[in-house]
Amino acid sequence: MARKTKQQALETRQHILDVALRLFSQQGVSATSLAEIANAAGVTRGAIYWHFKNKSDLFSEIWELSESNIGELEIEIEYQAKFPDDPLSVLREILVHILEATVTEERRRLLMEIIFHKCEFVGEMVVVQQAQRSLCLESYDRIEQTLKHCINAKMLPENLLTRRAAILMRSFISGLMENWLFAPQSFDLKKEARAYVTILLEMYQLCPTLRASTVTGSP
């Protein structure tokens, strides 16, 4: 019975997140109240507060879902098995998947729309900002570690400025998603995804400004 109750609680929590995701996407975060989420989810406000302290807490979990999607473990394991000694190909396929899935997977698309275009860090949402900055810095660390694996495998230059490259990667991928979500008719993200990723990785391999030896004062 306890196991069933715990499972029901998890299902309710996920249902609330799903409904909040839909409403945030439709109305924006600041214009959506917890009362509206509770009503749309068919639960009481007490049920909302049992799972989440407030709207910023609920939104933080949605944001963390968007961050975890960028490094989906299952996808990474799949490509590591396919390319066991080729970390650069693993990275390439993961990045292509991220871009293509933004087009083809509705849940991911809604998440990205909210993050990029339908959230303001004002009022009660101000407290979320620092936590999200921490997640951003952590993502740089993860990307940098992946790039170092590629360097160790001699697939990227040994003097690649990995921090600069990590910042470039996050900015490049996020920028493509943000611009496509804002104006999806302006370019075919799914069709062009692999070409864009290839351009990015070729910059890492060939761009002298990303090499430590060519930058004054670089480590």
Automatic annotation (TrEMBL):
Residues 33-52 bind DNA. Residues 10-70 form the HTH tetR-type domain. InterPro entries: DNA-bd_HTH_TetR-type_CS, Homeodomain-like_sf, HTH-type_Tx_Regulator, HTH_TetR, Tet_transcr_reg_TetR-rel_C_sf, Tscrpt_reg_MAATS_C. NCBIfam families: PRK10668.1 (NF007949). This is DNA-binding transcriptional repressor AcrR. It holds the Pfam family TetR_N. GO terms for molecular function: DNA binding; DNA-binding transcription factor activity. The keyword Transcription regulation applies. Gene3D superfamilies: Tetracycline Repressor, domain 2. One of its GO terms (biological process) is response to xenobiotic stimulus. Keywords: DNA-binding, Repressor, Transcription, Transcription regulation. The keyword Nucleus does not apply.
